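note to self — DONT lose this again. spent like an hour looking for the file last time. sequence + predicted structure for the chain T wanted, 118 res
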Amino acid sequence: MAEKSKQDEKESAGGDKGGSTATVAPKSKTKPTPRKNPPGLLPLWKVLLHNDDKNNVVFVIETIVELTPLNVQDAEERTVEAHKSGVSLLLTTHKERAELYQEQFTSKGLTVTIEPAK
């Protein structure tokens, strides 16, 4: 009985049961991981407000304040500039947000274009 308990201890401790052979796992070649550069800033795009004769100034100002982070004073300045010169830079942002602004202003009946900032 003592022999049986010693054999059980060997088996539970990873001992040989008899006939099995130990294998060594092959060394795997690990490639050094390349250094990744942190993501850079996205390219900037201009959101340009164009003058039109169909929308009144108050509506344009209210729409700018509603859709952008600009305050009333900044919205007034941009609206007057677009009225006098035909176009005004509303803001500069990344392309996806610029496209969103363009769609939102267009849905309100205002003419807004986007172009890459240089």
